[in-house]
């Protein structure tokens, strides 16, 4: 009798435990689903500002990487990847246009890639979610600062820009104009 | 704050003027330096002057475009018109006389300047001339805006051998036929 009783107890215990298990699994799955949905709707993309020379050497890069990268889903792509992939379209556009600011080149959900060319074919690329006007003003101001770097006779044309004051000026511009 | 002073200056509105004698002193000293260093090696002296001109040309092109006009050119003829008109005027106070094209040289354009400012106080010597410096400026501007070319100069002489120095003709030979 005792043995049957204990067996029954055990069966009941296992049933209770298995019930708990399935419930837990269900709760965990729902929770994962919610997190997934959260990260699709409130998706944050990396932003970036890039300056390229005529021969495709990068002169200056400024990335704004996402800090919490552990829970982010796979749809958030590397900003550098997006900008470099947009170069083909950029090339077509700037060879046929007389304008300096070439509006929107590429788009990824809410984030857009804007292009700007200087007369000596130095290209600016901006990946951001701001609208056109702000990016245009930002590009014009960045262009003026770039000219000040170019005028330095000790700066070799086509090499990376390492001046710390240039970096701080660009950072100021980004904060003021693009809310970065 | 001292670091930012350079970047705070507004280069859009500056129109600096330099005393021609000041520039001439420096330029004449540069030519003397080249002569001392390279002696009779005319090719070396010419290539050094051209190198200097190229770096000056690229920088000046950016600055002049910013100050005078905010557009780029994609067609060669219009770029040459910009050089002959606005650019020349900004550098030397006068427009260059004309842009020409010869029948028997389909890849070449000529820019004619009857009284170039740089040659005002410098005598004619067969092999070297500061006109090479001006060639360098032209080469820098054209290469930076995407039209690769070689630039050389010739002083105008009559059939009888009478020289009209300093009447100079700059010969721009373009390599890529698509640019023409």
TrEMBL record, chain A:
<keyword id="KW-0472">Membrane</keyword>
<keyword id="KW-0812">Transmembrane</keyword>
<dbReference type="Pfam" id="PF04628">
    <property type="entry name" value="Sedlin_N"/>
</dbReference>
<dbReference type="InterPro" id="IPR006722">
    <property type="entry name" value="Sedlin"/>
</dbReference>
<protein>
    <recommendedName>
        <fullName>Trafficking protein particle complex subunit</fullName>
    </recommendedName>
</protein>
<dbReference type="GO" id="GO:0005737">
    <property type="term" value="C:cytoplasm"/>
</dbReference>
<feature type="transmembrane region" description="Helical">
    <location>
        <begin position="20"/>
        <end position="41"/>
    </location>
</feature>
<keyword id="KW-1133">Transmembrane helix</keyword>
<dbReference type="GO" id="GO:0006888">
    <property type="term" value="P:endoplasmic reticulum to Golgi vesicle-mediated transport"/>
</dbReference>
UniProtKB/TrEMBL annotation, chain B:
<dbReference type="InterPro" id="IPR007194">
    <property type="entry name" value="TRAPP_component"/>
</dbReference>
<comment type="subunit">
    <text>Part of the multisubunit TRAPP (transport protein particle) complex.</text>
</comment>
<dbReference type="GO" id="GO:0005783">
    <property type="term" value="C:endoplasmic reticulum"/>
</dbReference>
<protein>
    <recommendedName>
        <fullName>Trafficking protein particle complex subunit</fullName>
    </recommendedName>
</protein>
<keyword id="KW-0256">Endoplasmic reticulum</keyword>
<dbReference type="GO" id="GO:0006888">
    <property type="term" value="P:endoplasmic reticulum to Golgi vesicle-mediated transport"/>
</dbReference>
<dbReference type="GO" id="GO:1990072">
    <property type="term" value="C:TRAPPIII protein complex"/>
</dbReference>
<dbReference type="InterPro" id="IPR016696">
    <property type="entry name" value="TRAPP-I_su5"/>
</dbReference>
<keyword id="KW-0813">Transport</keyword>
<dbReference type="InterPro" id="IPR024096">
    <property type="entry name" value="NO_sig/Golgi_transp_ligand-bd"/>
</dbReference>
<keyword id="KW-0931">ER-Golgi transport</keyword>
<dbReference type="Pfam" id="PF04051">
    <property type="entry name" value="TRAPP"/>
</dbReference>
<comment type="similarity">
    <text>Belongs to the TRAPP small subunits family. BET3 subfamily.</text>
</comment>
<keyword id="KW-0333">Golgi apparatus</keyword>
<dbReference type="GO" id="GO:1990070">
    <property type="term" value="C:TRAPPI protein complex"/>
</dbReference>
<dbReference type="GO" id="GO:1990071">
    <property type="term" value="C:TRAPPII protein complex"/>
</dbReference>
